[in-house]
Write a structure and sequence with these properties.
By secondary structure, this protein is of the alpha/beta class. The protein folds into two domains: 89 residues, Alpha-Beta Complex (Outer Surface Protein A, domain 3); 299 residues, Protocatechuate 4,5-dioxygenase, Chain B, CATH 3.40.830.10. Helices cover 36% and strands 19% of the residues. The chain is built from twelve helices and 14 strands. Strand 13 and strand 14 form a beta hairpin. Helix 5 packs across helix 6 and helix 7 runs antiparallel to helix 9.
Length: 410
């Protein structure tokens, strides 16, 4: 038997796309380890799906020739496998060496690199600053008018999409923050898009951005570690920060509006899936020792008037890429908006009510920012909320949408 080809990595996702009337699929690495994007035809995607680590190129070609209307030869399979290998999408020695070196470099560095520069936002300093200024200028007026504020809010929810799709929400949130006195410390509770072993993980590294570095509030990090103590290990999943974009996208904005004075505490919150799909009651989350302790520590810091908690969070993800049968349009988007707004209204009452409202959907809408929003709500229980705006970022060519909101907690 010929040698089996390496298998396609489990973190590789395919999103449908259309170019000049032709259907394609864009492959990307949701873990962020590889920054590559690979365009495949429907046949190419079928070939990629057969790379399971057990079949040889000849066996894959033979099977697809029998099971599809295409006459698939070894050459076609080899070309797809080679493209996947070069993109670091295969679980082979090349990828493992690359990932291991990336981990070593990250752990040895005092700085977390700007991994999303050039993809989620412009990598050029001048162009990026111009983009952010434009987003601030063009931000829509707030949906609900904030009270007359003489200091920054204690908490805020801001989206973590790329800047183009998230522009209305980013603009509403950061235009308000830019008009108010700056906080001394910003605690960013980011969304962890990959599984974590702990509830919350921190990163004690400065964040690099094209606009300059964003420093760390070491004192607050020390307080958090001391508060959590033996209840959990805030450093165990620190490597997750290397490829996670949800903190980075806020760090860039904070550097833009606050300059060198921005000091952050970068946290990632693990998904709260067990409280959303029936394995545990949503109200149990409020009693989780790590979530409760972290929230109490953050709430105490925010009460000082010098600290702001920022939840970097998106809402629903709908469309074929996310498991929907139909495309994100019309009645589906209207129904999603209704559900999203009920969730936000519940969050305004309490963190627990927000999670309970979300549990009614069975996590069907994949609200990826629910853990970050829950921690923020738990930390600032009883806070007055103002919805600056609710938005839906629709990508018609892919039949998908991501929804998000900008909301303040006073």
């Amino acid at each position: 038997m010929s040698k089996a080809t390496p298998k396609l990595r489990g973190e590789i996702d395919a999103a449908p796309a259309n170019r000049n009337g032709e259907n394609y699929y864009i492959l990307h690495d949701r873990s962020g380890t590889s920054r590559s994007r690979l365009l495949l035809s429907p046949l190419g995607l079928l070939i990629a799906g057969r790379l399971d680590g057990t079949a040889s190129i000849l066996e894959i070609a033979d099977a697809l020739s029998r099971e599809t209307p295409w006459g698939v030869g070894c050459r076609e399979v080899e070309m797809v496998a080679s493209a996947l290998e070069q993109a670091l999408f295969l679980d082979d020695a090349r990828f493992q060496d690359f990932a291991a070196q990336a981990e070593r470099d990250f752990l040895a560095s005092a700085v977390r690199p700007a991994g999303s520069a050039g993809s989620a936002y412009n990598a050029d300093q001048t162009a990026l600053a111009a983009d952010l200024d434009r987003i601030l200028r063009e931000a829509p007026p707030p949906e609900e008018t904030p009270s007359r504020m003489n200091r920054h809010p204690r908490g805020i929810v801001i989206p973590h999409l790329d800047y183009q799709r998230g522009a209305p929400g980013y603009g509403q949130a950061y235009r308000l923050l830019a008009s108010l006195p700056k906080p001394k410390t910003i605690i960013i509770v980011g969304t962890a898009h990959m599984p974590l072993r702990e509830r919350v993980t921190l990163c004690e590294k400065d964040f690099d951005t094209p606009l300059g570095k964003v420093g760390i509030a070491h004192g607050m990090i020390t307080e958090l570690r001391k508060a959590v103590g033996k209840r959990g290990n805030l450093d165990r999943d620190g490597l997750a920060h290397l490829n996670e974009h949800s903190v980075e996208l806020q760090a860039v904005w904070l550097r833009h509006i606050y300059g060198e004075d921005a000091a952050i505490v970068p946290l990632l919150a693990a998904p709260l899936s067990e409280f959303l799909v029936g394995r545990r009651a949503p109200e149990e989350a409020e009693g989780d020792p790590v979530l409760r302790t972290v929230a109490e520590c953050l709430g105490k810091a925010a009460s000082s008037g010098e600290t702001m908690i920022l939840a970097s969070a998106d809402l629903a993800h709908v469309g074929p890429r996310f498991g929907e049968d139909g495309e994100a349009e019309g009645q589906l988007l209207a129904a999603v908006e209704e559900t999203d707004r009920k969730y936000l209204a519940a969050v305004s009452q309490s963190a627990g009510e927000g999670l309970a409202a979300l549990a009614k959907t069975g996590e069907n809408l994949r609200v990826c920012g629910s853990a970050a929003i829950f921690i923020l709500g738990l930390a600032l229980a009883g806070a007055r909320t103002t919805l600056l705006g609710y938005h839906q970022a629709i990508t018609p060519e892919m039949g998908e949408a991501v929804t998000y909101a900008a909301m303040i907690f006073e």
